[in-house]
Design a protein that fits this description.
The longest helix is centred in the last third of the chain and has 22 residues, at 160-181. The protein is elongated. The chain is an all-alpha fold. The termini are far apart. α5 (73-91) packs across α8, α6 packs across α10 and α7 runs antiparallel to α8 (126-140). The chain has helices spanning 2-20, 23-26, 34-38, 50-55, 73-91, 95-104, 109-120, 126-140, 145-157, 160-181. The protein has a domain at 73-181. It has ten helices and no strands. Pfam families: DarP. Residues 45-74 are annotated as: Disordered. InterPro entries: DarP, DarP_sf.
Length: 196
């Protein structure tokens, strides 16, 4: 008797749902829709847009052998982990050695200050060290990877001659760039008469 009452109560609910459904809604998946066919299904285009190809200055932009427009996420993560590892390696050295490496890699004073801060943390500051090393890694990401690896390895091995050679080579390159950036004054005569 209770089941008959439940069936009777459910029957009006089922009947009330059916008239609200329109036949066009029931069979909408079968009928082709114009707005569905015009929109692309992909989130981003499969290849570079024609406007992107025009913007590139490469001579081989049209033959498909061009470099990708940006690095993959895996490459970016790999570079970030490498920079954090550089920070961990640098924190093991003395402040003078850190200064020499950062100067050779032409990095800013901010990276040196961040490394000195992480060296002051005690052994119980685990989360703070992790965050600080991530920050140091972000500061070091702009460095040349081969140069940083070579400088750190030379310092670990105690190879001062190789370290000095790398530092001098990098210093000469920096001086050459600075000389090229200086403005040339062509208006002044080279042999001006001396005042009497």
């Amino acid at each position: 008797m209770a089941s008959a009452a439940a069936t009777a109560a459910a029957a009006p609910l089922r009947r009330s749902l059916l008239p609200s459904l329109k036949p066009s809604c029931l069979f909408s998946s079968l009928a082709p829709s114009l707005h569905r066919l015009s929109l692309p299904r992909a989130l981003r285009p499969a290849g570079p847009l024609p406007s992107d190809a025009e913007d590139s200055d490469d001579s081989n932009a049209g033959d498909g052998a061009a470099e990708p427009l940006r690095k993959s996420r895996n490459d970016l993560k790999r570079e970030a982990r490498r920079a954090v590892q550089w920070g961990m390696d640098l924190a093991k050295f003395s402040p003078l050695q850190i200064k020499r490496i950062l100067r050779a890699a032409s990095l800013e004073r901010e990276a040196f200050d961040a490394l000195m801060l992480v060296k002051r943390f005690g052994p119980d500051v685990r989360e703070g060290k992790r965050r600080q090393f991530n920050y140091i890694g972000r500061l070091l990401r702009g460095a040349q990877p081969e140069l940083m690896d070579t400088l750190i390895q030379a310092l670990k091995d105690g190879d001062d001659s190789r370290l000095l050679a790398l530092m001098n080579e990098n210093t000469f390159l920096m001086e050459d760039e600075e000389i090229e950036d200086l403005p040339h004054d062509e208006e002044q005569p080279s042999h001006a008469p001396l005042p009497k």
